[in-house]
Amino acid sequence: MFNTARMALFAALLAGVAGPVFAADFVEPPVVEQAPPPVAYQEPADFGGWYIRGDIDYHWSEFGGGDYTTYSGTAPQNPGSFASGSLKGAFSAGAGVGYQVNRYFRTDLTFDWMGKSDFRGSTNGFCTGGTVACTSTDTSSYSAMLLLANAYVDIGTWHGVTPYVGAGIGGAWVKWDTLHNTDLDGSFEHTGGKGWRFAYALMAGASYCLTDQVKLDVGYRYSHINGGKMFEYASDSNVGPGYDHGINVHEVRGGLRYQFGRSDCAPPPEPYVPEPVYTK
């Protein structure tokens, strides 16, 4: 009987110890939900869009030469050409509106007012009734409005700097002021010519991000303006009309562009990585 009681007590103690142990084995651990993989950044479909621009420049013009006719009482008439001719530099200002198609291609329409460039040239001929060889001095100036449709390739962006090349085609409205001609016979004036001409341009430069939507644009532009009427006929000298052979313009330009759509100056958004969620 004593052994039976002792075994019963031992069994009770064993059950008291083993019960919590087995119960602990059946407690489920906390569940940790795995975070979804990070979403790779993709360029938004609305990158680019409309932009406006404003520019100023200093330009140097090259006179391509010019021809005129000197009339006499009998045919044939005498054609003549400028012996020399040069143009001084001047300032310009312009504005435009464009569209950024994607990160590497854009187009715009620009209008520039080119300030007066002073002209000084000379012609060779005969004075005092055609008996004495003489050289005249000719002075005038020209100004122009340049309207161009342009296309650009943005090569790439490094540290906010985007180099580019471009080309444009359009027209120029050229206005020559009164031509003053002075020689041994005196001084004569010719009304300046004016009108539209064909023009084209080539350009290269770089832009720099000032803000998320504003860029500083600095570059060089070469423009060629076709020839046209330079001055009208003057009855007191029997000379005219005169035509220039065209004008080459070299410009150093600087300006600002404002992007209405999303600019490549804006940093890409950070990929969203959700925090792990723990549940009990």
UniProtKB/TrEMBL annotation:
Top-rank lineage group of the source organism: Bacteria
InterPro entries named in the record: Beta-barrel_OMP, OMP/PagP_B-barrel
Domain Outer membrane protein beta-barrel: 45-260
Keyword vocabulary terms for this entry: Signal
Residues in the signal sequence: 1-23
SUPFAM superfamilies hit by this protein: OMPA-like
Protein name: Porin family protein
